[in-house]
Amino acid sequence: MPQKSSLNNRPIEIRWHGRGGQGAITAAKIIAAAAYAKGYRGVTAAPSFGAERRGAPVSASTRIASEPIMVVSQVEKPDIVVVLDHTLLSYPDVTQGLGKDGWMIVNSPLLPKELGIKFECNVATADATRVCEKLGLIVAGLVIVNTAILGALIRATKIVDLPTLEKVIRERFPASTVEINLAAINKTYEITRSAK
Amino acid sequence: MAIQRKANVHILDGNQAAAIAAMMSRVQVIAAYPITPQTPLTEQLSRYVEQGELQAEYVAVESEHSAMAVCTSASLVGARTFTATSSHGLAYMHEMLHWAAGARLPIVLACVNRAIGAPWNVLNDQQDSISQRDTGWIQIYCRNNQEIMDTIIQAYRIAEQVFVPVMVCYDGYILSHTEMPVDVPIQEEVDRYLPSYQPHTVLDPANPKNYNLVTLANPRVGVDGKLCHGYMELRYLLQEALQNSKEVIVKSGKEFNQLFGRDYANVFWEDRNEDAEITIVAMGSLAMEAIVAADMLREQGIKVGVLGLRVFRPFPKSEVVQALRKSKLIVVFDKNISYGSEGATCSEIKSALYGTYINAAIRNFIVGLGGRDIKARELVEATKKAIASLKETVVNPDYPEWICEI
Amino acid sequence: MGTRDCNHICDESSPGIGEAGRTGEWRTLMPVIDDKKCTASKLNKPTCFLCWLYCPEAVITKGIPPLINLEYCKGCGICLQVCPVQAIVMIHEEKIAD
What we know:
The complex is a heterotrimer of chains A (196), B (406) and C (98).
Chain A: E1 12-19, H1 24-37, E2 42-47, E3 57-65, E4 80-83, H2 92-95, E5 103-107, E6 122-126, H3 128-135, E7 138-139, E8 142-143, H4 148-157, H5 162-172, H6 175-191, E9 193-195
Parallel strand pairs in A: 1-4, 4-5, 5-6
Antiparallel strand pairs in A: 1-3, 2-3, 6-9, 7-8
Helix pairs in contact in A: 1-5, 3-6, 4-6, 5-6
Chain B: E1 9-12, H1 14-24, E2 29-32, H2 39-50, E3 57-60, H3 64-76, E4 81-85, H4 87-92, H5 94-102, E5 108-113, H6 127-130, E6 138-141, H7 145-162, E7 166-171, E8 180-183, H8 187-193, E9 210-211, E10 220-221, E11 227-228, H9 231-260, E12 268-271, E13 278-283, H10 286-299, E14 304-309, E15 311-313, H11 317-323, E16 329-334, H12 344-353, E17 361-366, H13 376-392, E18 401-402
Parallel strand pairs in B: 2-3, 2-4, 4-5, 5-7, 6-7, 13-14, 13-16, 16-17, 17-18
Antiparallel strand pairs in B: 1-8, 6-15, 10-11, 12-14
Helix pairs in contact in B: 1-2, 1-7, 3-5, 7-9, 10-13, 11-12
Chain C: E1 12-13, E2 29-33, H1 39-43, H2 50-54, H3 78-82, E3 88-92
Antiparallel strand pairs in C: 2-3
């Protein structure tokens, strides 16, 4: 069998932006696990390296590829950017490197066009915060939107399907929190709106 | 041009020579913990301070780690500092050795070379200082007690110019506890040679500074708007400082000669290397024993020279290449071992020669570990063995030979 | 342009406000001082100021009333813990984008 070049194995790169404590890193790991369950042989999920602080802007990344991934450096040109907290949109590094075919998935009550994103890309929004508040997905006073936003991500990008995601949630979460998280994902999936 | 001066010879052991040199260098803070075979050195220094002969603060710390922590703090706020240790003490200091070099503090440390356990052993080899090779310190090895005296004084002149700490290494017992004649300089001469320490870190309440805080990978703009180094730029500067220190070491040795009449304008000592076909390489007191071995071999008609390594860090690559350019066989004796590889100086020699036109055979012998006595005739025998091995192959063996009875 | 122009040979910086960035962004709960309970405000005297003393970020003024600089307050809540008259509460705030 001919040796496969790593260049033909360019992974799909997702960069996550949230605030410390919102669960962006967990979300990055869940999608990686779901992609692996779906048959992708190369997946990585990593936090941005350094001191993470509750409330401070943080980022994480997920890479998904058909073959094992060799690249370990920071994501430069993401295919997908997921924003867990819309107050982060004002930071230039949130959108950095995103191309016109890329996707922005934003937790926001606004429609994609109302976000005021000033460059060409695909945008999907869903008010995950409201979904979670209604469901009572609140821990220590913080609305936990990281699972809900996965619904918007997979609805817009079809990167994995709902049953696979559900399987991973069931494996990874304590039984007592599985249903509420699945409900958040399903509800957010339903209300996601996309636009080019 | 050496000046005419009256010799002031005393019979001193290595620790006494080191203590006098530290005193004459007018060190202001000494922090040390006693350990064999360094103990008499720290005892002597505390006596100088106690008796008022030396105006310094002697901090009796509870460990070597603390000793170096005290030295870094004192140096950071502008004091000329000195410490000394051996073996496990140096190992215990390891973390703070990195800190001293990283903070670019011109601390001078006398390392009285001793073996490291297990098993316990208080006698000489160079495993302790060689194990600290990559901490960013300049390392200079002494062949005799005169060199200990002179090198410690020079060490301050070097360190305070390049802002890199200097480890002055000398063999435990073989030098530390062996008396020999030492020409002791007079204080006025040393004062002329060593101007007072001008720190690069200034403690000024009117202009406060942070030093060595968490430093991120990338450069960043400080509050004053200046783009400041990231961690990696600071590491580069330390490497650059060591690279450039070679010149300062040689210049300081030359200036030393002008005042004291003893020439140190070199990074190693050479003996009859001009016409040598075989060069023996050794470091520390063994480099003197090697001269005796060379004498014996010369008597038998074998053209042998000696390269006595003095400066191990920075390693003088181009100078070594120049010195070994005529050698057909290089016999390297190491009082240390990088387990699974070979002696440390042998690796350095090989690395220096790579890519040059010199294609000499190299034989490495591990000798004198844990105080195993090594005599000139044993160096002769090993050298002859190395010569004989050339009949079989000129290829350099993967691993060194050991001179022991296994 | 390289970093050599800073002329430092080890890590060196000048202490200043905002050395670690705008740390107020890290906050999840915001401290609010009730001037009716605060000893200094109530007595209209420069007294107590334990919040000023204990604030690890030095973002509380020694004034009447003591003021909190929310640009840099990380919301750690130490002021609430040390206030002897329970004049400080931590509240949720809607973070506002720049």
